[in-house]
User: Fold these one by one.
Assistant:
Number 1:
Amino acid sequence: MESLIGLKDLRLNMDKYATEVKAGKSFIVLKQSKPIFKLTPVDEDNSWEEVVNFAKIKKGGVNIDELLAAL
């Protein structure tokens, strides 16, 4: 079961909750006692896919204006 936390508490203690989520804990975030979203760890096996790493294309990344102009 997920723990319930208030939105204000999340804003004030973001580092604490980020550490706990990274460790595997989930939270339901409430605003005025109503759930608005859920924080859960990323499933590293299936949920995240790198599409393009611009730092591999050009050291320091790619200038957004250059990228948009090329499109």
Note: The mean pLDDT is 86.
Number 2:
Amino acid sequence: MSTKSKKARDEAQGSQLEFADNAVLARVVGAHDRHLAEIERKLNVEITRRGNRFTLHGASAARAHGAQVLRELYAHAEDGQDVSTADVDRAIRLGLNADSVVPSGSSVTTPKRNIRPRTPGQARYLEALLRNDLVLGLGPAGTGKTYMAVAVGVSMLARGEVDRLILSRPAVEAGERLGFLPGDLKEKVDPYLRPLYDALYDMLPAEQIQRRLDEGIIEVAPLAFMRGRTLAHCYVILDEAQNCSPQQMKMFLTRLGEGARMAVTGDPTQTDLPPGVSSGLAEARAVLADVEGVEMVEFTEADVVRHPLVQRIVRAYAVYDTRRPKRQE
């Protein structure tokens, strides 16, 4: 049989896939099979579904790519998570690139859901968080730096490996803007800390969060509240760390007490500090590079898991920054 005839026969026969749970599959295929249609359009394959069985027709490489996408989406949905258009796009982008394969078995369990890394960068980050006392997660928005850190903290709290979970941000560290906002101190501060609350509510039942906040087991506070404290037997996360000054970063890092773990997250390219003030995150990146017990994980645009457009925006800004003239110091 000629190579051309064999190829035609293989494409006609197609690739077979079967999944166990039809309820999970409903999230994978999407309303009116719209996720399947997206895979077909972008990979130039034809997907036929009969119940929990799929047949993919097309070129061999395209069929293999489509099968991997379906397996990845099924694993994501099997963890109890919805499948969005962005998830489909991400799975397609990862494709068959060996460097983009997310290790199987990488996950962290929280009371509300089992959370799997969705990119190789997230997988490296999760492993670093689980084995080190201090981890710096550096990279663009939408890469899951804070979300994964909160997941590990919630998981350790639920298993009794730490006594408290402390989440902090430097957005209002100096306090100069608080007086212009209505309400008491909590009402002034909470809008700045909302992203941390959002992650918590994704992983813990609301009644548990409120009870643990009242008991001080979970604390969400501005960076200024960390000064003078020793944080022992707790999991501490500093978010938006690019907006710390070097002095604030040193203050925070030296709060680490016995039995404590820390995660520091931030995007070095999005500093909101006043002109002339250097970023504590950038300095920590250099100072801690060779310190034992500290691990740094760098995310790239390939790890963005938000809307597909976010990845293209991050890439466009990176290109623009390399081309524009440097400011004179």
Note: The longest helix spans residues 60-78.
Number 3:
Amino acid sequence: MATRVKQAIGEIDVVAFTTAIDKVQGTGKWPAGTEGTVVSDYGDHKEVEISDNRGVALDFPVVPVEQLKLVEKHSLH
């Protein structure tokens, strides 16, 4: 039986929000499932760049790692 190892999320990894995210309290500016790229790693929080389909940055929320799901691994750790 194979053991599944949870990979650490690092800079340049693509992630998805597992819950709605808002930088200010409210109903959530970015819905669960929104994808972005980790641009800064603060240990238990990650700064995520959210871009439009042309690559223009729309937002940079800092999100607890518990609210992120790894979509594509690009970092070395």
Note: Strands lie at 14-17, 35-41, 45-51, 57-59, 62-64, 68-72.
